[in-house]
Every structure is written in C-alpha cells, then in structure tokens.
Amino acid sequence: MCGIIGAIQQRGEVAPFLHQALKRLEYRGYDSVGVTTIADGKLHMKKEKGKVEEVHRLLDLDDLPGSMGIGHTRWATHGIPSLYNSHPHFDCNSEIAVIHNGVIDNFLELREELASKGHKFDSETDTEVIPHLIEDYMKEGMDLKSALKKTTKRIEGTYAIVVMSTREPDKIVCTRDGNPLVIGYKESASYVSSDIPAFLPMTNDMILLLDGEIATLTVNDIEIEKISDDSRVERESIRISWTADQAQKGGFPHFMLKEIHEQPSAIRSTLKLRSEVIVRAAQILRDANRVFLIAMGTSGHAALAGKHMFASLAGVVGTFELASDFSDTVYGALNENDCVIAITQSGETTDTITAVKYAKQYGSKIVAITNVVGSSITRIADHTIITQAGPEIGVAATKTFIVQLTSLALIALALGELTGFKDPSVIMRKRDSLNRLPELVSEVTAKSEERARSLANIYHTKPSLLFLGRGVSIATAFEGALKLKEIAYNHAEGYSAGESKHGPIALVQDGFPVVIIAPNDETRNRIVGNIMEMKARGADILSVIEDGDSDLASISDHIFEIPKGVEPEFSTIPYVVPLQLFSYYMSLRKGYDPDKPRNLAKSVTVL
Ligand code: F6R
Questions:
Q1: Cα(414) to centroid of ligand 1, in Å?
Q2: Strand arrangement of the beta sheet that strand 464-469 belongs to
Q3: DSSP assignment, residue 418?
Q4: 415 and which of 9, 81, 314, 591 could share a cystine (Cβ 3.0–4.6 Å)?
Q5: How many CB atoms lie within 10 A of CB 503?
Q6: How far is the CA of 422 from the centre of ligand 1 (A)?
Q7: Model pTM?
C-alpha cells in the first residue's frame, strides 16, 4: 500500500528527483517518508513520520549527496507510524538499505533467530529482518544479488523489495512476489517503482518485473533473472502512452476534480478499444456455463452494473461476488466451463488477485478489466481489456470506474450480438447511445458542478445519508454512498430501494437525507413509491432524475438532472457523475482533502 522509488543515474544528485517522485506517489496513501542515497562509500539517510512536504521542511530531502538512491512512503502495517518504523531499514553496519512493500508473515521467528546471532533491531517492522538477513549472507561471501535471492527463500509473505549497499555502490537490486514493481529506463538512468507515474517525467519506457524475478539496475543496464533457477530473462520493454502531464493537476485544485472532468475523454478513448479485444471477451463469456463478476470497492460496483448489462442486453445472467469472499462463497464448486470476470483498476488488489488465482486452480477462464498495462492481473488472466482512463491519482476512483462501466457496456453489446437475445436493431440503438455518452457526460459535469457545490452547503451538516436505487441504479447508489464515505467521512449507505422498507426506513425521520437515483427506466414508477414512503416519514429527498421529469422533481427537495437519451443499461455512467461531484464538494465544505482520504490507499495489496 506504500510507494517505492529507486533511481540510479549517470551524474548529478538524485535526491531532488526522489523527493518529487515520492510526491507523485503520495496518492497511494502513507504516513511516513524516507530516502537514502549512496555517496563516498556511505549511506546517507533522511526519514521521518509525516507527509512528504512536512518531512522536507524539517529535513530538506533535496540535500542528500550521490547519484543513486531509494525512497519510500510508508503506510503502517507492523508498528506505528514513527521515525524508527519508517523505511529504509538497515543492517547492523549501515551498509545495506532496504525498502519493502508487503507483509513478511514469518518475521517474528526470523527476528528471533537474527537477534540470537547478535543482530540489533531499531524498529517494530517486519521489513527490518530483510537487511539483516542480507547482511548475514553477504558475510558468508555472497554478492548483493545472491544475498537477496537467498533472503527471498527465507521470507514468507508478499513483497516488493528494493535494496542497495555501499559494498556494491553501482547498483540497485530488486525483487517482487505479490506486490507491484515496475522498472523504467532511458539512456544513462534506470528507475524502479511501485507505480508508473513516479518516473513518468523521466521516461515512458518500462520493463515488467514478474513475481519470483530479481532485477539488477545499473546506469546503463537492467538484468533480470528468475530466482528459482537463476536463468536469465529477456523481456521486451513496453512504451506507455501515459504522459507526465496526465499525472499533474493541470490547473484543477485536486486530482479528483480533474479526473471527474477527464471522464468524457476517458470514455471516448475506451470506446476506441479494438473490437477484437472486446469480441474475444464476449466469446469467452458466451462459451461459459456460468459467469462470475468479481471485484472490490468501486470496481465491485462496476461489476454489479455489468451484471445488469449482460442480463439485459445478452440474456447472460452472471453472479456478482466480492473477490475477498469469493472462495468462501463458491467452496471450490468451480470448473473449466466457468468464466470469472475480474475488474480492478490497479490490477494489483490482493483480494482480487487471490480470487482469480483460486478460480484458475479449477481451470475457470479469466477475463480481466484493468487500467494498468502489465499489472499483476494481466499476467494471470486469459484475456485482458485495458481501460483507457490514463493515470488516476485521486485515491477515490472516478474515471477508472467510468471506463470500467464503458468496457462492460462494450462487452455486453458484443455478447448481445453473439447470443441474439435482443434484436440487432436494439443493439444498434444501444450502441449509438453509448457512443453519445462522452458528450452527454460532459454536459452532466458542466451542469451539475455548481449545483453539487451549493448542495454541499446544505447537506454538510448531515451526518448520515441513505442512497437508494433499483435495478442497475443499485450500483449507482452504492457508488454514490461509497464516494461520500471515503472522502467526506459521512455515514452513507447504498441500498436497494426495494429493500429499504425492510429495515433502513427505521432510520428516517424529519430532515433525514435520502438520495434517490431515478433514471427513466422500468424501475421509475416503483421508485416513486419509495420516495413517497420516505417523504411520509419526513425524509429530505435529493434525486438524480431525467431532465424534464417534473413528477419526480415535484416530490423531491433537490434534484440533479441528466439529459434524456440514456439507455437504461448504461445509466450508471452519467447518473454517478453528480454524485461524484457532490462527494467532492461535501469533502471540501467539511475541510478535508478529497485526494487523500484517511486510512485509504490507491491499491490495497494486503488481504
Ligand atoms: C474507491 C476505491 C476502492 C477501490 C478498491 C478496488 O474509490 O478506490 O474501493 O475501488 O480498493 O481497487 P481496484 O479497482 O484497484 O481493484
């Protein structure tokens, strides 16, 4: 859940780059910062609890000598956020510096073993056993790479590890198992990071490092080996299309707002995905006996909406399961005729990766939808669709959600063509409407922003809100509630409007806010009934309705309006936009930073 950066360059001080790279990694969520460089045969280190700029003001992160170094933003797992628990961690002689993401499950026994041999520990972290193990193996005569290899054979858990040592001051060595690491390179410089945006200003050329591989980075070379048999890996580099500018705020006060405004172009780019890629996914679904859609959080809401699209457009009734609970729900009752669609913007969410690996054991086919080229899920899936949102920096997912929905809509249409569940003319009409969504979403964004800001002035004092929808709009309601929870810290619950009278209605009293998602689809008349039930108990109704739906407007206290012409299956795409903006302005009104919600991280790589 933390950020890793390492850089080795021909000349010049590397510290200012590491500092800026750590700023670009802030979005992952973290509580402390540390940087170490090598110069004059010594490690030079600065680290402290706090945000990058706070630590920089205190310690001047730019003032470290040397042209190679490593840096880390830590999100506490083992041990409280503190100077001592911050990475990098060191061996007894301060010759080896290590940063690590992940969790070492057997660190207690390793620590005991190392302590009994006289090793001294400064922190409560699991990570600290790593430099000490490397120290022991180097004492036995191994070089840094061999010592790290041997260390990976002793540790159990998940990791991305980056190491450097004064004994071999021309290289950075790194390895991974279960946590992401990508390598970047250009002439006379090499980089390693947990995330592509960290080195984007320097290069767009990257090389994937896979689980169980170890890479040695020098100024002019990147050498990769498999740890299991020491064999050399030759891997093509990938040129990524993301630009450094996309990972900047570009004049917006927050990444989240910028990313909401980028949604129309993200949809447009995703609609241009090659049709073979979409049709292949549809064929796999058509050939499956059962379809499971699995994901977490916002991606789970996309999966839920996708389930509705598949059923309505193609007659394929899938099952949505939270990836975290997948194995505990299906109990091994999977086989090679099943298809699992895994949706994950980062491609690294451990819950989702674990569920996919579980399904693979039974031979099920895996279709992945992710936004990150080369991410872990892409290497496990039988077929991958890469959504075209560009880098998403705001922790609360917005544009990646919209492009997940767009990809699912494309698959559903292709599947509909294959199954013939709907008349081809219907599919054509739906496709036309999907193609018009970029303009429509632009219009919704422009129209809703001011209203969202003024509604935040009204609702910011309300501690608790209920979000209700029916059919596919249940997914919209869930997402609206999640966004508000994440960045404005309201208690917000998304619920099926049908289910709302079976319990949640007990919460409703005078002035209790209920947000209703009411597109003009076959659920509209039934949701009127739900609004009336809520109003009868004093609820304050904020509705997202179709433009000109005067009946719904008249029974609502406040409304957001969405232009006509949205096909019901795709309604989540425009109807969620005002709710994203509402959460954003609620967060601001309450004095929070919507880009950096507390306790959350951009990719959750722990179980
Ligand atoms: C919500 C959010 C999280 C993620 C969830 C899954 O704004 O960002 O709920 O959706 O952690 O992440 P991915 O899509 O990377 O698997």
A1: 26
A2: 491-496, 464-469, 513-518, 540-546, 558-562
A3: H
A4: 314
A5: 9
A6: 33
A7: 0.85
Profile the chain (607 residues) by mean pLDDT over runs of 10 residues: 91 96 85 95 96 95 97 87 91 97 93 96 94 98 98 95 97 94 95 93 93 96 96 92 81 93 96 96 98 98 98 98 97 97 95 97 98 92 96 93 98 98 97 97 96 97 97 98 97 96 91 98 95 95 98 97 97 98 98 86 68
Give nearest CA residue, ligand 1 atom 4.
Answer: 297
- The tokens of 369 are what? 């939808």
> What is each CA distance from 378 to 219, 388, 438, 479, 602, in whole angstroms?
29, 15, 27, 25, 18
**Measured from the CA of 351, which atom of ligand 1 is nearest?**
16
Contact 32, 73 (CB under 8 A): yes
Distance CA 128, CA 148 (A): 13
Question: Token digits for 196?
Answer: 């592509």
CB distance 510 to 498 below 8 Å: no
Q: Which amino acid appears at position 102 of this protein? A: G
Query: Nearest Cα to 500, choosing from 481, 521, 487?
Result: 481
What phi, psi does 151 have (nearest 5°)? -60, -40
Residue with the smallest CA separation from ligand 1 atom 11 is 297
Which amino acid is it at 177? D
- Here the tokens at position 191 are 């980089």
Give the DSSP H/E element, type plus range, for residue 370. Answer: strand 365-370
User: What are the tokens at 16?
Assistant: 């200012």
The per-residue b/e assignment along 243-276, b for 16 or more CB within 10 angstroms, e otherwise, is: eeebbbeeeeebbbbbbbbbbbbbbbbbbebeee
What domains does the chain contain, in order, with CATH numbers? 3-247 (3.60.20.10), 249-435 (3.40.50.10490), 448-591 (3.40.50.10490)
Q: Which of 29, 34, 40 is nearest to 5 (CA)?
A: 34
d(CA 175, CA 232): 14
What beta strand segments (E) does 273-343 contain?
A: 290-295, 319-322, 338-343
pLDDT digits (tens, 9 = 90+) for 70-97: 999 988 778 888 889 999 999 999 999 9
Cβ partners under 8 Å of residue 588, min gap 6: 456, 594
| Chain segment 253-307, per-residue pLDDT in tens | 999 999 999 999 999 999 999 999 999 999 999 999 999 999 999 999 999 999 9
Residue 372 CB–ligand 1 contact under 6 Å = no
